[in-house]
Write a structure and sequence with these properties.
- A hairpin with a 7-residue loop joins β1 and β2.
- With 153 residues, the protein is mostly helical.
- It has 2 domains: 58 residues, no CATH class; 56 residues.
- It is flat, with a radius of gyration of 32 Å.
């Protein structure tokens, strides 16, 4: 019977702590990138994707509030395309969108040229109106105007 000596390693690698292993894992750029984008994806899914998909589901139903619905397929869309008020609304929306986008492009380009060319007179006014004016527009347009009641006049 031969006796063989058990070979011992020349050095022993100390086991890294959980903290060090976790830190090294999270310091990888790929891993950190995914971890940072997860909250945005969850919020988009919860606030955009779910309501959109639920709306698509409901658009295919013949449903009245408080009663169970039945599957209607594309019948709702066929009925909608047959109504004149919908087509008029669609036309008005397209005209408004094309006009608004066109005006914004023309005015934005014009203002950019004024600033870029370095016109001396009014340059500061234009820059101030660009930085101060546009944030106020949505606030002003969203403020409801209260109609006067006939009894108060």
């Amino acid at each position: 019977m031969s006796t063989q000596a058990v070979r011992q390693p020349l050095y022993v690698v100390p086991k890294r702590s959980l903290y060090v292993r976790t830190r090294d894992f999270l310091e990888q750029e790929r891993v950190l990138g995914y971890l940072l984008i997860i909250p945005a994806v969850v919020l988009l899914a919860a606030l955009v994707a779910y309501p959109f998909l639920w709306g698509m589901y409901l658009s295919l139903q013949d449903k009245v509030v408080g009663r169970p619905g039945s599957y209607a397929g594309l019948q709702n869309f066929r009925a909608l395309l047959g109504e004149g008020i919908f087509l008029q609304t669609l036309k008005n929306s397209l005209i408004y969108t094309v006009t608004a986008v066109g005006a914004k492009v023309v005015l934005g380009t014009w203002l950019a040229l004024i600033i870029h060319r370095g016109i001396r007179r009014g340059r500061h006014f234009v820059r101030a109106s660009i930085s101060v004016g546009p944030p106020k527009v949505p606030t002003g347009s969203a403020t409801p105007s209260t109609p006067k009641s006939p009894s108060s006049s």
